[in-house]
Amino acid sequence: MSFATEPTAYHKTVLSDLQGAWSNLRDAVVQSAGFPDWELAVFHIDEAMSWESVRNLAVMRQRLILVRNRLRHDGIPEDIITCLEDVNALMDETLEALRNGEID
Fold this sequence. Notes:
By secondary structure, the protein is mostly helical. The chain has one domain (14-99). 68% of the residues lie in helices and 0% in strands. It contains 5 helices and no strands. The protein has helices at residues 14-31, 38-48, 51-55, 57-71, 78-99. Helix 1 runs antiparallel to helix 5, helix 2 packs antiparallel against helix 4 and helix 4 runs antiparallel to helix 5 (78-99). It is globular, with a radius of gyration of 16 Å.
C-alpha cells in the first residue's frame, strides 16, 4: 500500500499575492470599522475571497468593483485606501498573468 506524499516545494504565483492583499484589505477595514458602508465592504471582500471567485477571476473582478465603490468616499482611512490600491494593482497583474498563460 502506498501513501501519497505531501509536496515539499510550492510554486508561488501572483494568486497568492492577490489573496494576501485581499486579506490585508479586510483586516484594515475591520480595524477601522465604523465608517459608512464598512459592513458591506467586508461582505464583498469576503465574497471576493470565496472559492467561487478564486476559480473565476471575472467574478472576483466584479466584487473588486463593488468594494471600490463602497470605499471611495470621504472619511476612509488612508491605510484602507493603500490596501485597496494594492488589491487593484495585483488584480491587474493577475489578469495579465492569466492572459499570458502564466497561471491556470
